[in-house]
């Protein structure tokens, strides 16, 4: 027996050393040597264990190094290969390879926002950017709740009532949907005006909020005013009754004098027509009538106790005598083609009853 052990020991020792050394070699498709560590916070890691895979786009790029608990948060430390570059705002999810497969950590770039920066050694993915997939037990439990009276019966009732409500009203419903579509389209076309109105309403609300004290004081002042109105209710009612009577009387007067009023308006029509025909002459005549016998600008000539005048004096003796005595100079032509009536013209040698023969004498002397 001892001899057999001595023969087998030299043969088994190299095999044992080789097997122990293989445990430190990286697995195919796993993380390489080195890499950088990233801490990921989860609300629940389920049955995730150390040495689980870390994947990006279903490709293994690292492994789970450590799982720790910090209060109500699970902290998972993973090591990612150096040749894998991920943005600093990456997200992480806890998934499993199949329905009953093993759990792994999936890291992916953000979807809703643009990638920023890069994950480095010691970086942390916070809990608000992590999630986990639903467990088989949770899915089966929800299905059992639904099938066991959770909501199918209610859905059946809703479906039946909806069919009863819509049956026979297809045309009306179609018209309603068309009007609803037009209404929504109109709202969409006026969305800028609606937003502007909402902004204006918001500004008004802010202004009212700043004037809360003034508004409160105004509302407080309404109380005494309402009390005064209540005390004067009888007088106000009497005033309204009087106004009603006045309206009745006014209506009666207007109806009774309707014909006379229309006749007066018709009588005014010729006068108004003549005023329109007079044009500018009527206001000019009124202006002259107010200052008669002087022109309207006479006030500009009066300066205190003297008057500024501009006079054109015609001292032609013939014109003067003609104006004074009603005659005219011999060289003056006939004033009118038609003379005075024959029976009124004085005869030869007859004197003018007003001036006698003085005018003819003077005029004759001037002419001769």
TrEMBL record:
Keywords: Signal. Residues 333-347 have a biased composition (Acidic residues). Residues 1-21 form the signal peptide. It comes from the Bacteria. GO terms for cellular component: extracellular region. It holds the Pfam family MlaD. Residues 326-356 are annotated as: Disordered. InterPro entries: Mce, Mce/MlaD, Mce_C, MlaD_Phospholipid_Transporter. Residues 35-110 form the Mce/MlaD domain. Residues 118-277 form the Mammalian cell entry C-terminal domain. This is Phospholipid/cholesterol/gamma-HCH transport system substrate-binding protein. It comes from Phytomonospora endophytica.
């Amino acid at each position: 027996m001892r001899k057999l052990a001595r023969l087998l020991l030299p043969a088994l020792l190299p095999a044992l050393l080789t097997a122990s050394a293989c445990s430190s070699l990286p697995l195919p498709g796993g993380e390489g040597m080195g890499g950088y560590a990233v801490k990921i916070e989860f609300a629940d890691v389920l049955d995730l264990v150390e040495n689980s895979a870390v994947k990006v786009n279903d490709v293994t790029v690292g492994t789970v190094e450590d799982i720790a608990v910090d209060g109500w948060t699970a902290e998972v430390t993973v090591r990612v290969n150096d040749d894998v570059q991920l943005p600093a705002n990456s997200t992480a999810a806890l998934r499993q390879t199949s329905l009953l497969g093993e759990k792994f950590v999936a890291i992916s770039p953000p979807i809703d926002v643009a990638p920023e920066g890069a994950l480095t050694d010691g970086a942390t993915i916070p809990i608000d950017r992590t999630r986990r997939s639903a467990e088989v037990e949770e899915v089966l439990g929800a299905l059992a709740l639904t099938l066991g009276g959770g909501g199918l019966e209610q859905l059946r009732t809703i479906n039946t009532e909806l069919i009863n409500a819509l049956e026979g009203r297809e045309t009306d419903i179609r018209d309603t949907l068309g009007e609803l579509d037009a209404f929504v389209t109109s709202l969409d076309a006026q969305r800028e005006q609606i937003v502007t109105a909402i902004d204006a309403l918001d500004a008004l609300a802010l202004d009212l909020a700043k004037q809360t004290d003034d508004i409160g004081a105004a509302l407080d002042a309404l109380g005494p005013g309402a009390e005064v109105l209540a005390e004067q209710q009888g007088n106000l009612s009497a005033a309204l009754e009087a106004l009603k009577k006045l309206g009745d009387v006014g209506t009666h007067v207007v109806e009774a004098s309707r014909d006379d009023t229309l006749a007066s308006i018709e009588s005014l029509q010729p006068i108004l027509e003549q005023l329109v025909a007079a044009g500018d002459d009527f206001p000019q005549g009124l202006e002259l009538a107010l200052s008669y016998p002087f022109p309207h600008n006479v006030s500009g000539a009066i300066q205190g106790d003297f008057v500024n005048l501009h006079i054109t004096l015609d001292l032609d003796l013939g014109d003067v005598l003609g104006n004074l005595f009603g005659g005219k100079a011999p060289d003056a032509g006939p004033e009118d083609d038609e003379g005075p009536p024959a029976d009124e013209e004085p005869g030869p040698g007859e004197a003018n009853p007003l001036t006698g023969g003085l005018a003819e004498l003077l005029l004759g002397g001037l002419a001769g």
